[in-house]
M23 family metallopeptidase
Amino acid sequence: MLADGNKQPPRPSFFSRLISLFIKAIVLLALLFVFDKLLPSISQQTQSFVVAKWQQLNLLQQELPTENSLPSPLPERNLTDTWGAARSQGRSHEGIDIFAPRNTPVQSTTQGVVSKVGENTLGGRVVVVVGPGGAGHYYAHLEDYADISPNDWVNQGDVIGYVGDSGNAKGTPTHVHYGIYINGSAVNPYPLLQKD
């Protein structure tokens, strides 16, 4: 009996302790199995992220694009300077539109690290590549993406997507909107692109 007059709780039987130990062992083995399966992918994601950050640091050491230094994202297509043109809701155009048939491959104008493959309201399906000097190269209104993901490295000329009319361009002639952002501010890409 305990000091307060209550009886001691009965000790678990050998059999119930064995079952409890067996259940704990199964849970532990299940957790080890899950960690064994997840750890390589977590490790791979971490490695990919670290490599991408290292590549971005190296890119920051390189020169920003200069006049006539970048190839067109749509080679052999006519380039027109549509920078600053009026847009809906009082906006002005922060890039240039390059028209081409739907699903024409869009090429990266620069080497760099893919920072976004996704959607937004205005641009629809977009890809952003961080290139030399930390400049962001923005490709919008895509029909579809190439086989790329954030943190992937792309070289100049690699296909990153396909011409479309997604986002607020729905129903307009198919094109890619190409923009360049330096230190977070849009700059006119037209003078930086090589003209054929």
In short: The chain has a mean pLDDT of 87. Residues 85 and 93 are 5 Å apart (CA to CA). Strands lie at 96-99, 105-107, 112-120, 124-130, 136-145, 153-154, 159-163, 175-182, 185-187. Residues 88-192 form a domain with the Glucose Permease (Domain IIA) fold (CATH 2.70.70.10).
